[in-house]
Amino acid sequence: MDLTVVAYVIYLVISLGLTVWVARTLSRNGRVFLADVLHGNEKLADAVNHLLVVGFYLVNLGFIALYLQDDSTIADARGVFEALSRKLGVVLLVLGVMHLGNVYALNKFRRRGMMDREQVPPVPPQAYTGPAGPWAAPAGGA
Q1: Are 100 and 107 in contact (CB under 8 A)?
Q2: Are 33 and 45 in contact (CB under 8 A)?
Q3: How far is CA 25 from CA 13, 28, 29, 137, in A?
Q4: Distance, CA of 120 to CA of 105 (rounded, Å)
Q5: Which residue, 41, 61, 54, is CA-closest to 102?
Q6: How many whole angstroms separate alpha carbon 26 and alpha carbon 102?
Q7: Span 105-115, mean pLDDT?
Q8: Lowest pLDDT segment from 27-31, 77-81, 122-126
Q9: What is the pLDDT of residues 16-64, one digit of tens each?
Q10: How far is the C-alpha of 53 from the C-alpha of 68, rounded, in Å?
Q11: Is the Cβ–Cβ distance between 69 and 11 less than 8 Å?
């Protein structure tokens, strides 16, 4: 068997395994953030989480497929390791960037939700208090 084909198979197995592992980790832990952002709406949190995971898979699997092609011929075991290290290193960097992007987006959604909750006063206003100071109108009206 050609060593290039061996490198392709190893690359695909490792890349796909890493992609599935990262996606499952993001899905499991990202759901907690989404539930918090969406004020406990579990059904909506699950739907958004699923959409994010599908997008993650599409981008990463597309990249893995496009990056599979290699114009060089692998002649020995050293060439297999060099080709794999180069390809897997790039895949790991892309997975890391995608992971950080997802974490950043989830954190941004969470902060926005926290800010929205802080904008609501804990007790509704009970009365209106006019301006105070020497420029304010006297209490009697004129």
Answers
A1: no
A2: no
A3: 18, 5, 6, 63
A4: 24
A5: 54
A6: 8
A7: 74
A8: 122-126
A9: 999 899 889 888 888 887 887 777 788 988 898 898 889 889 988 998 8
A10: 22
A11: no
Look up residue 85 and give its two tokens.
């290290």
Handedness of CA 11, 12, 13, 14 (dihedral sign): positive
Query: How far, CA to CA in Å, does 40 sit from each of 107, 108, 122?
Result: 16, 17, 19
Contact criterion met (CB below 8 Å) for 28 and 6 = no
The angle, 0 to 180 degrees and rounded to 10, between the axes of the packed helices 77-119 and 42-67 is 150
In terms of DSSP H, where are the helices of the chain? Answer: 3-37, 42-67, 77-119
Name the amino acid, one letter, at 101: G
pTM, two decimals, is 0.66
Q: How far apart are CA 103 and CA 117, in angstroms?
A: 21
Type of residue numbered 137: A
Question: CB neighbours (10 Å) of residue 37?
Answer: 22
